[in-house]
């Protein structure tokens, strides 16, 4: 069993930095591009961890920006549904086989991509 260590505390300055959408999209492309090669098991582990980290950053950023949208607005409902779906995907464990792990990582990538789109479309990048 591995001994876990607590992540370092996040400073107020770090938590207010905007998400790096370009880096997120580069990670997403590695799995979702039309010409993407299947990752090796080692690369898949790295990509999955990166995608999980991206979601942990982009979810609160999108929530913060979405808080400015009018309640009951169709876009607001869409953004909230996307956030909830991303949270569900974060809680899931990948399967034991390489194809199952790739499928799981692709779902995470789709959530990262959708949330990055929402972040930009509702003015988070400004």
What would your notes on this structure say?
The structure is a single chain. This protein is 67% helix and 0% strand. It has five helices and no strands. By secondary structure, the chain is mainly alpha-helical.
Q: What is the total tally of β strands?
A: 0
The amount of beta strand, in percent, is: under 5%
Distance N terminus to C terminus? 44 Å
- Count of DSSP-assigned helices: 5
Please summarize the sheet with the most strands: none
Structural class by helix and strand composition: mainly alpha
Percent helix: 55-70%
Mean pLDDT: 87
Rough shape?
Answer: elongated
Rg for CA atoms: 15 Å
Unreliable spans: 1-8, 10-14
What is the helix/strand order? HHHHH
Characteristics of this structure?
single chain, 0% strand
Summarize the topology.
Blueprint: H1 12-15, H2 21-32, H3 41-66, H4 74-91, H5 98-121
Helix pairs in contact: 2-3, 2-5, 3-4, 3-5, 4-5
How would you summarize what this structure contains?
This protein is an all-alpha fold. The protein has helices at 12-15, 21-32, 41-66, 74-91, 98-121.
């Amino acid at each position: 069993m591995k001994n876990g260590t607590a992540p370092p505390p996040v400073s107020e300055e770090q938590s207010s930095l905007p998400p790096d959408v370009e880096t997120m999209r580069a990670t997403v492309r590695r799995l979702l591009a039309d010409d993407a090669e299947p990752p090796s098991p080692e690369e898949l582990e790295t990509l999955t961890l990166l995608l999980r980290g991206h979601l942990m950053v982009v979810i609160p950023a999108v929530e913060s920006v979405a808080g400015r949208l009018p309640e009951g607005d169709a876009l607001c409902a869409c953004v909230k549904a996307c956030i909830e779906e991303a949270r569900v995907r974060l809680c899931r464990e990948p399967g034991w086989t390489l194809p199952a792990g790739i499928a799981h990582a692709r779902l995470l990538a789709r959530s990262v991509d959708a949330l990055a789109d929402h972040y930009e479309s509702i003015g988070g990048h400004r």
